[in-house]
Design goal:
alpha+beta, 3-stranded antiparallel β-sheet, 5 strands, 3 helices, 87 residues, 43% helix
Amino acid sequence: MKKRDNNILVQDIEGETIIFDSLTGKIHKLNPVAQYVWKKLDDIYTIETIVEGICTDFSGCERSQVVKDVAGCIQQFQEMGLIDADT
């Protein structure tokens, strides 16, 4: 998975990540988990290491729920065209 570089503008504003897709004209405001996943996508992180990071960084997380949340987040990014599914 890799973030789509072209036509995507990302801005952190007061601790929140906002994504503007200039191709669609849509603005996406990320929740804390989506923000964490987004920031890890271009690194050498796997889904497993992203899940482990969230479980470590966010207290009180149920691992099974985090796995579902991360998978759902990545699926939403793909459906919105923000990441390339083939990479």
